[in-house]
Amino acid sequence: MDNRLTPSHAARLFGKLDFLNQTLFGKVGRTGLLPIKRRQYELIGDHSLSFELRAAITWIVELLVTCPPRELSLHEASKPPLLLYTDGSANPNREPMHAVGAVLFIPGQEKPLYTGCAVPDEVVSRWIPAKQQIHLVELFAGPVALDTFRPYLVNQRIIHFVDNSSALGALVKGYSNNSDCVRLVADYWLRTASLKATAYIDRVESKSNISDEPSRLNFDGHMAQLGAIFLPPVLSSLIKGPSQRDPSLWFGGVDRWKKLRSSLLLDGV
After folding, report:
1. Domain 77-234, what fold?
2. What is residue 115's predicted lDDT score, i.e. its pLDDT?
3. Closest of 243, 120, 127, 249 to residue 179, by C-alpha
4. Which of 227, 223, 229, 201 is nearest to 210 (CA)?
5. What is the pLDDT of residues 85-128, one digit of tens each?
6. Is 64 exposed, middle or buried (0-12, 13-18, 19+ CB in 10 A)?
């Protein structure tokens, strides 16, 4: 490959991928399509692969390997869904400043599961500096919950409640124009697909969000009253990677990507 993507090739690639996305699992395919769609209309320039396009192509390859086909099971539809609540908090007068929490209710299980933790400094330091980053904190809570509760979520239907409108919109759409949001949305939907879980995301009022206290690292209130079971947060796959957060390191590590890239003859990407 010559490390170029012309507008005409981008148009053909986008058309095939957009069609393919309709048969894949949920909204996972939308995240990586925007840079390719934009290249269709960039008629001026040498059309070399930008970092954004490299990331998009890497994401798409990972998507094709990870995502199962769309399924509709009448038997599974009769099972009650799991209820997942996530929340994030940001307090400049608190150490740590950013924290997330999640609570999972499992049908038939009396005690809910919960987790809560600070957002690692190495994660926050990679975000684009801004006065308000609460929407990113709220988004980060989603992948943390999916990784932490993973054994309980496989092949399950999930109703996921979020109280931040910006985070909710990005998850429902499956993409965002903000690069930091896109990465977190990608984390969320690719994890959902790998779990073969069906997630329906809806809004909950902040006062009704039971994960509010865990997101403030308060485990002595409602969680104690409910006898909820604490699970240590799983963060390992969310804090690895270089400063650019190369997508090849998001899901499975660089060794897996090297083998995958070689098998698909994408050495030029």
Report:
1. Nucleotidyltransferase; domain 5 (3.30.420)
2. 98
3. 127
4. 223
5. 999 999 999 999 999 999 999 999 999 999 999 999 888 887 87
6. middle
Neighbour-count burial of 100, counting CB atoms closer than 10 A to its CB (0-12 exposed, 13-18 middle, 19+ buried): buried
pTM summary value? 0.78
CA distance 96 to 174: 29
C-beta atoms surrounding 39 within 10 Å: 24
Q: Give burial (CB, 10 Å; 0-12/13-18/19+) of 198.
A: buried
Nearest-angstrom CA–CA distance, 18 and 27: 11
Query: For 133-154, what is the mean pLDDT?
Result: 95
The residue extents of the domains of the chain are 7-70+246-263, 77-234
Residue 127: Cβ-neighbour burial (10 angstroms; 0-12, 13-18, 19+)? buried
Residue 210 has pLDDT above 90, yes or no: yes
Contact 55, 247 (CB under 8 A): yes
Cα 220 to Cα 225: distance, rounded to the nearest angstrom: 8
Q: Which of 150, 162, 238 is nearest to 200 (CA)?
A: 162
Average pLDDT over residues 128-145: 90
Alpha-carbon torsion, ordered 171, 18, 63, 9, to 10 deg? -130
Averaged pLDDT for residues 185-194:
82
Report which of 196, 152, 173, 174 is spatially closest to residue 25, judged by C-alpha positions: 196
